[in-house]
Amino acid sequence: MAAVKNGREYLAHVTETLRYRITQLDDSIEAGQKEIEGMHEYYWENYTEMDQYGYENFDNQQALLHEINASNEKIELRRRFRKMMDSPFFGRVDFCYEGDEEPEIFYIGIANLAEENGGLPLIYDWRAPVSGLFYDFDKGPASYQAPLGEIHGDIAAKWQYKIRGGKMIYEFESDVKIDDEILKAELGSNGDVQLKNIIRTIQKEQNAIIRNTSDRIMVIQGAAGSGKTSIALHRIAYLLYHDRKNLKSSSVLVLSPNGVFSDYISHILPELGEENIREMSFDLFAYKRLKNTVSDCEDRYDLIERQIAGLCDEKLLKEKQSRDFLDRMEGYLVELEDSLMNFRDVEHRGVVKKEQEIIELFYFKFMDIPLLSRMDAVAEYFIDEVETLKGFDLPEEERDAVKSRFYRMYETRDLYVLYNRFLKQEGFPSLPQVQYEKRKLRYEDVYPILYLKYRLETQQEDSGVRHLIVDEMQDYSMIQYLIIQKLFKCKMTILGDREQTMDGDQQDVLTFLPKIFGKDIRRIVMNKSYRNTIEIASYANQLAGITEVELFERHGKPVEEKEFPGLIEALERVVKELKLEKQAVTEAEADRMKMADMETAGAEGQEEFSYETAAVITRTADEAREAYYILQKKLEAEGYEIHMGQSTLKAGAKHLLSLTDAVTGQTKQDGAYKENVFGSYVHGIFDGAGIARTVIQALAEKKGVQMGDIGSMTYAEYKETQYDLLAASLRKYLNMEKIYRILETGIDE
Description:
The chain is an alpha/beta fold. It has 25 helices and 27 strands. A hairpin with a 2-residue loop joins strand 5 and strand 6 (149-164). Mean pLDDT is 78; it is low at 190-195 and 580-611.
């Protein structure tokens, strides 16, 4: 079938092969399950009679494990084949090897498929070496890197396909690069709000990043909409395929300032034939490492909430993330070498270690060990000396007692106390001097104290991680990167965009990354944006002052500028025109709309297209916060009706909200507002922070009061405090122990 030129005929053959392979696997999996059950039964019936040395038991366990692993592999292969039934392939390359007259045909898809295990593939995995021809070359001379060396030849033809539900939507020959019309169609078909795999539309420059295996640290700086996140995930999928012997899904870790990346991971990697990888926010990572020092740590969202409420000292925040702060901390660490220690003689079982000997061991023999871990090495040295002289090993409890005498030579080993001393010494506000249970670090102090930990204590490298992905690199400080460098010695993919920082000021991390990681950094800049139409992207870039972005040639409706008397009126218009319901459109209709010049056929079923979205751009951060709370009020209000009244609007008044009955689904307008007067028949709507703040905002504007001057407790929080007071009063005057006993056991007769 390799000689078949027609994609539709080939699809029929591939589909038949997939059904056959799936049926084979079904039978094999069923037989394997019966074999496993039989092995379990044999073991439990005969384990008492197995040889006393355990050889037979071991052999049985190994055989069972082998059978289970083989069964799991078959189940995974069946899952992959079932997924391929929807769209077995998307591309084809006709490649004529150097010296040959007839081309060999390679169909490209999501995974490999052969008529039998070990046979010549009908479909080649998009990550296979030969598949690079599809992404990297047009018609004419081409080459690819095979395991035995570079293979040269000529591409006679390239084809592109769209298959859905096992049916051919279109096929056409592409003389040049992956056709822009295909890319436009994919970008415009936003039927899924989650990130998509892009294997059908990978561009040449993107393919070079995905298939790069030589650079230890790759830094991808991409403009908004450039596809850097997709590229990073496809790169990981490729690396897992390329180096399957050494790299597993479990040995890949994603660090991100937020949890958004996990949504991408859970959606894309299974599509690409890989298991999900580990992901955690860097804030969670920090908390886990500091849990023995403090009871709690703020994360970035806690910081943002403080910033919104006007409770954050922005100057202090920036100062604690600065190079100068780090340099001062390094000076403090030098001082600690002397000021932290109180040396004295140690005697045990008649063996004495003089103060001067301990000093020499501490400052010379073990000088390369971090300060707070160094005395452990000195103690072990002394214990080894005692055991050698006495001719026996000390019991564990005795060893611990000896070590504690050495540890007491530190004035303190508490990182919280040491960091606090540094703050006082340098003139910064000190942390509360409280017990462990009440220690909660503000965000600006989390990473400085974590940095202290890594400078003062020996850390175990996370050797289980063989590839690290750092997402949103522009939101990490120098201190955070120094921690990453200290802990992870593996290959890395670092990605972000300085224009999209969550911080108030942009920072180009590439100015200091080479100083931290050395010269083995490969920098990739992706300035081509695919996310929006030219009209939207040009307008947004003009507002943001962004000039270095290349826009993909995709047009849409022009941007309209309209004036409104105020922000509330403008947002009302947004809410009114925003379409929040999904529209069902057949796939064939969608393709005809987007690619009118291409043949469409065979589409069945319907697909829901995504919610319409809107971006609200404001002049200031304060306006953005206000817009957020207003929209939250208009789109997310909750409450309950008691009086079932109907609001009648008079001159200048407008409805406050649109209500949707949770039972009937019916919608109606309710309430009214005019200037700073608000009213509604809905009870409980002021419990939410968004609505309450919106009302207060309107009142504050009239009174000339700044929102930052207002405390940030919601009514719901206030009610909780009152419930706590009530509960405390009940506990004071009632025998709660007896009440709980009655609830559990009933009343004693």
